[in-house]
Amino acid sequence: MRGYFGIGSERISKPMNLGAVLRTAHAFNASFAFTVAAHHHAREVNLSDTAKSAAHVPLYEWDSFAEMRLPKGCVLVGVELDDAAIDLPSFSHPLNAAYLLGPEKGDLSPEARSLCTHLVKIPTRFCVNLSIAAALVMYDRTISLGGHGARSVSSNKQSPAPPVEKWLRTHHRKKTKTPPA
């Protein structure tokens, strides 16, 4: 997969969530992470970012959207549980994108939504934790743009899984009578 992506949040307030987002961004090879109008303490962020992601993934911290500077050609994609949003599994990810999630207890601001080229939602019944939502978005991007082959039924590449009928025949248990007590 070529291209790049960043992941960030507007008004994030829980340092453990930010640390988890940074660690996951590092694991998924994000090019950068960012916050807009965040409220956290750096020391507490480091408690959940055990991968020390700051050495590998730059974190941009902007006080407002007026300060935010994304790379040229980078598309801002809002992630919001909204009926008007595109379901994430149906979304065609831009090659160069920055994904923006809302705060833990709230929605993306009207200003944030107006800056987004696309709005996507994770098809769940209710909102999930911010760091989980970020991980799901990065995973979906990796799966859809990563050039992965078709899914396999078996992890054993040498021989495919046996047909269900054969498995049932070989794993059928004989019924035995239990002796009377």
Description:
The radius of gyration is 22 Å and the shape is globular. It has a single domain, classed as Alpha/beta knot (3-Layer(aba) Sandwich), CATH 3.40.1280. Helices cover 27% and strands 18% of the residues. Strands 3-2-1-6-4-7-5 form a seven-stranded parallel beta sheet. The protein has 181 residues and is of the alpha/beta class. The longest helix has 16 residues. Helix 1 links the parallel strand 1 and strand 2. It contains five helices and seven strands. Helix 1 crosses helix 2 and helix 1 runs parallel beside helix 4.
Question: What are the salient characteristics of this protein?
Answer:
single chain; 181 residues; alpha/beta; Alpha/beta knot; seven-stranded parallel beta sheet; 5 helices; 7 strands
Structural class: alpha/beta
Shape: globular
Main beta sheet strand tally, sense and closure: 7 strands, parallel
Could you tell me the mean pLDDT?
86
Strand tally is: 7
SSE map:
Layout: E1 4-10, H1 15-27, E2 32-36, H2 42-48, E3 59-62, E4 75-79, E5 86-87, E6 96-101, H3 110-115, E7 118-121, H4 130-145, H5 164-170
Parallel strand pairs: 1-2, 1-6, 2-3, 4-6, 4-7, 5-7
